[in-house]
């Protein structure tokens, strides 16, 4: 039983991180209908930025966070203006190839700047240690949970009570109507990319603070897609819940099945099995809106 | 697309001919002859490059039918190559089948895998289908690792020397001939498949699924056919690759290859047989350029610059093509040809 509960707790921890990354993905998708494959690479850049500001420059945690967010804002604006703006109105494949190309360029930049090396900065982030009975709750889990909750609260506030939030929701609804009432769709796109890049970078700093920054951080983006599909591509709340569900399922499945299967590594492919099953049986996910095609 | 002045189609045979003038026949025949003479004057290194290009061409033709003509985006093409490669490797290494029998079986196995993973395409499209095919790639590789007893898992599998009719295909030149034979075969079949009833149905599905269905095109049947055909090409290419290196390992079929095959299609131009070939040549040449200039850059700037250059150059070339020439090199080539055909009355441009 303890083994099972420990698996669940670890799963929730991972799930929160997946959810945080998935949120950035959902925001871009909701506003501009762009499927951002490069979301995982924002996390990668975030992990390395954390190391740069905390270790290399020796900034205190708040200054490092601000500096990383400022970098993320610039990165988001540049990416939107240079790469995604020309893609408005292009077919799905072209847009997706653009974000894939973006992901390789970001990977290349990270390799160039940080040498694709393992950079650790343990203990520089605040840690919270909690124990319930015999199960220890990892600090990663709690900080991931807290940061995700804060991020989601800010985003909810932004969406509900600000003018730009209203514009973003309207753009998600109908681009043509939005343009005809004089809302600048390009501003909305820029803001959504900035949000996604900031969320990704924050996730990267969190992950980097726990396990160090290396090139594998980008792979987490692929798992976030399973989360997004399970939760429904246009639901922020669904992304969080699906993140937790997937994190738990993955850990439980790996914990019990890996000793049976010869090669192991089930946790790596588990999200993809979930992906296929969701796509075959419920393509719009648990909380997404079903897409109806009319002629 | 206009015809050359003085080209008339007077009967159905001429209308349906693949090449509508003697000149084009001559040019294509000359190209094939030059391809087959290559081993006599090219170095081993050049032959290796041409062979890998040829294998990629076979694979990309399949992806072109699936993605360029039928509009079903597959980002698991390298996974389907792995199915073909491993099937023929196992048949040769464990069961002692001859190479000529193992290759078609590998292609068929990949086709069946394609059918299986193509099933979700009946319900989903666009981004969702991309996700499903990415999942296919990772699941296939995982299954190969799991079946350690027959595939060798992560250790890989040694493949015996391929022979056909007693001729050993171990020398670079011999294998080059084999690959070029398949390239010619794949190009001819790919060019003709899209002119058949099924090919027209693929194009109808790509352009508008609902309209195609209303006109009586069975989405169910033709989407699966596209997956089957596309993956048969992938399987044949995978089999060729495995027998070329005489070793099958999962590192030969990475996820990023699936992405670069799509990149080749974009650079070359989707939905044209010649475009697929152009794309492969362009991206493989870029690869070679990076391999050559990498060490120089690594010495001049930083040791990691070579690895970084490979990633950035590939990403940038796709970005540049998507922004400035989304219809690819083939479209550029058509424009150049139209310019000379219409000169000096270039205002009468074709399409």
Question: Your description of this structure?
Answer:
The complex is a heterodimer of chains A (295) and B (351). Chain A has helices spanning 2-32, 39-56, 61-84, 92-114, 139-161, 163-173, 175-180, 185-211, 220-231, 236-257, 266-281; strands at 130-132, 135-137. Chain A has 295 residues and is mostly helical. A two-stranded antiparallel ribbon of chain A has the order 1-2. In chain A, helix 1 packs across helix 9 (220-231), helix 5 runs antiparallel to helix 8 and helix 9 crosses helix 10 (236-257). The longest helix of chain A is centred in the first third of the chain and has 31 residues, at 2-32. The model of chain A has no long low-confidence stretch (mean pLDDT 82). Chain B has 351 residues and is mainly α. Chain B has a domain at 43-281. Helices cover 73% and strands 2% of the residues of chain B. Chain B is built from 15 helices and four strands. Chain B has a two-stranded antiparallel ribbon. In chain B, strands 2-3 form a two-stranded antiparallel sheet. The longest helix of chain B is centred in the last third of the chain and has 28 residues, at 273-300.
Give the key terms:
heterodimer; A: 295 residues; mainly alpha; ABC transporter involved in vitamin B12 uptake, BtuC; two-stranded antiparallel ribbon; 11 helices; 2 strands; 72% helix; B: 351 residues; two-stranded antiparallel sheet; 4 strands
Structural class call of chain A reads: mainly alpha
CATH topology of chain A: ABC transporter involved in vitamin B12 uptake, BtuC
Q: Overall 3D geometry of chain B? A: globular
Largest beta-sheet characterization of chain A = 2 strands, antiparallel
Rg over C-alpha atoms of chain B, rounded to the nearest angstrom: 21 Å
SSE order of chain B, as H and E? HHHHHHHEEEHHHHEHHHH
Q: How much helix, percentage-wise, in residues of chain A?
A: over 70%
